[in-house]
Amino acid sequence: MGSIWVVLVVLGCGILVLRYLLKNVNWWLYESKLSVKQYSLPPGDMGWPFIGNMWSFLRAFKSSDPDSFLSSFRSRYGDSGIYKALMFGNPSVIVTTPESCKKVLTDDDNFTPGWPISTIELIGKKSFIAMSYEEHKRLRRLTSSSINGMESLSMYLTYIEENVISSLEKWSNMGEIEFLTHIRKLTFKIIMHIFLSSESEHVMEDLEREYTTLNYGVRAMRINVPGFAYHKALKARKNLVIIFQSIVDERRKLRDGYIPKKSKDMMDALIDVEDEYGRKLDDEEIIDIMLMYLNAGHESSGHITMWATFFLQNHPKYHQKAKEEQEEIIRKRPSTQKGLTLKEIRQMGFLYKVIDETMRVITFSLVVFREAKSDVNINGYTIPKGWKALVWFRSVHLNPEIYPNPKEFNPDRWDEHKVGEFLPFGAGTRLCPGNDLAKMEIAVFLHHFLLHYRLEQNNPNCPVRYLPHTRPIDNCLGRVKKCSSTSM
After folding, report:
1. Alpha helices, H only, 38-132
2. I need a surface site. Which of 73, 239, 303, 481 has the fewest CB within 10 A?
3. DSSP calls for 324-391
4. For residue range 427-463, what is the model confidence (pLDDT) as tens digits?
């Protein structure tokens, strides 16, 4: 019996020693090299060797309580608002307060984009998420007017409205549908028109299907093994590149030395642009930028449109208030006018509060990545040069000190908010250039839905999945029903 106890004690001690060693591997790899600076790092936990905190992150976001990931940091290390971790293969500092998030997003002298290698490999090494500040500034200036300029918004409004009207009519005759799936197809068709003017239905279906697979890999661990999300996403990217390359080749062939005076769409603009030295973008640059824009331009709009519709349906008071606003717009419209105008869009004050509140509650992009170009001090803690700074939007948008009852949908709370407290499109020089277009697109859909339709969900209490984006697991299965202009 004595020898058995000795063995058990030795085994127990061995396990404790092994656990201690494993938990300190990342300290040796990343923190010990910092010398005295390690003592000014934020509190936190670097997790297990190599995988760091990714298991706990994925476990939380695949559960019904995604915020338990950060809650565990707060419970163990206090409410400092800034924590060290090993995320997506990199030593990182998670920032969670409005002030620290604003600092990281707007300080271009000390921070540069720091997206994980896996994300860059999927979205593109020559896309906005990877290019230098100077190159980003130049290309943003070129492309943003094609998306958010007043002339562009006016031009796109008619196309968006026509497709919203026809899609809602079609869906109301289809019976049971996956509401989210069809909205995503609609927003993809719209963004395809804006960036590529028009492509065949077959090409659009192929692109949309590949983009869906790509998105599942963006937040996954970088495991390039068959069966894993990242491996599937890499294959999807290859297929997308092939499709885009064929489109670029066709556009160049049509030109045959002739450059039109005015670009027809974003693809034309990227093919035609040249800098002060006469340098044009090569095919890889064009494809990566297009791939990034098309991905960002339909996923966020589609999901937020679905959730805004969902919230309005489940909050009759806000539904009625939003509907009355839209009916008032119609009443004031001249009898000769056909369709919405930008002036009317600007009059949708409450509807835009609904959209903002939806973006806050859902927080489509939960985190943005930056990398410290030098040692940076925030709130008395050091973010070392080369470490990633993870701007955790969910923690800001769901902070009860900023938004009382933060998980409650309440558009009336949007009388005002301070800079840094609302970050659905980021902030600083890399603020999403398509924010005005996205919100207009959502507003047009809600305008027509509120006036003429209702959604009957099969399962209003359907469980929610949080990766890669927040959505009901049944994709909001239900029926779109026509209704009179005076009934809900």
Report:
1. 54-61, 68-77, 98-106, 117-123
2. 481
3. HHHHHHHHTS-TT--S--HHHHHT-HHHHHHHHHHHHHH-SS-EEEEEESS-EEETTEEE-TT-EEEE
4. 777 767 677 888 999 999 999 999 999 999 999 899 9
Give the ranges where 67-178 is alpha helix by DSSP (H): 68-77, 98-106, 117-123, 133-148, 150-172
Q: How many domains does the chain have?
A: 1
| Residues in the chain, total | 488
Cα-based angle 314, 317, 322 (whole degrees, multiple of 5): 95
Place of tokens 């009934």: 487
Written as six digits, the tokens of 242 are 């092939």
Q: What is the pLDDT of residues 4-37, one digit of tens each?
A: 766 666 677 766 665 655 567 888 889 888 989 9
- Report if residue 6 sits inside a domain: no
432 marked ligand binding residue:
yes
Domain presence at residue 331: yes
Residue 223 tokens, joined: 């495991």
Q: How many CA atoms lie within 13 A of 460 on its CB side?
A: 9
CA gap 240, 248 in Å, rounded? 12
The residues, any chain, with a CB within 8 Å of residue 30's CB and separated by 6 or more, are 46, 86, 91
Q: Domain range spanning residue 235?
A: 31-482
Q: How many CA atoms lie within 13 A of 292 on its CB side?
A: 23
